[in-house]
Design goal:
Elements (H helix, E strand, L loop, with lengths): L4 H12 L2 H16 L6 H12 L7
Helix pairs in contact: 1-2, 1-3
Amino acid sequence: MPQHESVERYIAARNAGHGDAASRIVAEVTARFNTRTTDGSELAELLDANLTTPLAAKE
């Protein structure tokens, strides 16, 4: 189970086939990392989820 709520939302979006929502979450997390409001663990966990969670087809 992910430690960060954003990663849970990202995985749910990917599993539902919502690529646009997943992209928005990536942008939000990246912005937090770039402004140093996160320590990088959130982005690292998001990268792992990206590599292990395929984008499902929309139904």
